[in-house]
Amino acid sequence: MIHIAAQVAPAADDPAFQAGKRVLTLQVVNTTCLSISCQGQTITIDPSQLQFTPDIAVGYAGLEAAIELAWDSERFNSRDMAASLVERKGIANLTEALFMVGFDGQDMYLITRQWIAAAPDGVTFTPIVPSGLEFLRPRLWLTEQSALLKPLVIKNKAKRTLLSQIKTGDSLAALEYQVDLLSQLVLSLMASQSAVASPSWLAAFQNALTNQSSLQFKGADAVATEIGNYKAGLRTLQKNYISQRAQEA
Which domain holds residue 180? Predict the structure, then answer.
C-alpha cells in the first residue's frame, strides 16, 4: 500500500502559487510503484527493487535537475556521504529535499514539503500544513506510520548526531601524530637490530620523518597525551551514540 502526506498545490491563479515552490506530480504504477515527476524529470520507485528493507530515501534535484535518491542505508554508513552526494549526484543542498519516502516491506510512505499536483488514486492521503509537525519533522511522521521504520529513524538520527560532533581535521591530525610516533618507534627498534637488512627506501623515509614530522611543533610526549585525550573524547561520543540509539525518536 502507498501512503502519502503532502499539500495539494493551489489553483494557478492563486497568489500562493506564484511563490515558486516546486510541484510534484504523483502517479501509482502497477498498484505498488510510484512515479514522481518534477520540472520535466520523472523517477519511478519500485519497492521490490530495494537492496535493503526497511530503508528510507530522500529525493533531491541533482545535476540538470535530475531526480536523485540518497538512501539512508548508504548515507549513514559513510562519513563522507555529503561530499559523495555532491560529487556523484550533483546534490549541492541537502536541506532542500523534494520528498522523503520510507519502505516497510511492500508498504511505501512518502512525505513532501513541496506541493503535489493532486493526490493520486489508490493511496491513503494525509494533508499537511507548513506549521504542522509532519511538515516540520517528516521523519517523525514516518515513525508514526511504521513500527519497522521507527528504529531505523532513531538509529540514523543518533548516527547523524555522532558524525556532526566529529571534526575531520582533528581526526586527520590525530592519525598523522599516531603514524609518526609509530614510525619513530619502528625506526628505533630497527636501529637496535643490526642484523636486520634495511630496505632501500629507509634512508629517504627517515630523512622525511626527521625534517617533516608532525611531532616537531609539540614534541612526542605532548603529542602522545593529545592522542590519548582525543581517543577518550571519541569513545565518549561513541558511548553516547549507542545510548541514543535506544531512545525514542
Answer: 168-244
Q: Does residue 152 lie in a domain region? A: no
Q: Rounded to an integer, what distance in angstroms lies between the CA atom of residue 45 and that of residue 229?
A: 47
In this structure, the answer to whether residues 137 and 233 fall within a common structural domain is no
pTM for the whole structure: 0.74
- Mean pLDDT across the chain, nearest whole number? 86
- Of the candidates 107, 136, 140, the one whose C-alpha atom is nearest the C-alpha of residue 34 is 107
Task: Tell me the CA end-to-end span of the chain in Å, nearest whole number.
Answer: 24
**Mean predicted confidence (pLDDT) in 148-161:** 86
pLDDT band at residue 233 under the 50/70/90 scheme? very high
Omega cis (within 30) before 138: no
Q: How many angstroms from the chain centroid is the CA of residue 186? A: 38
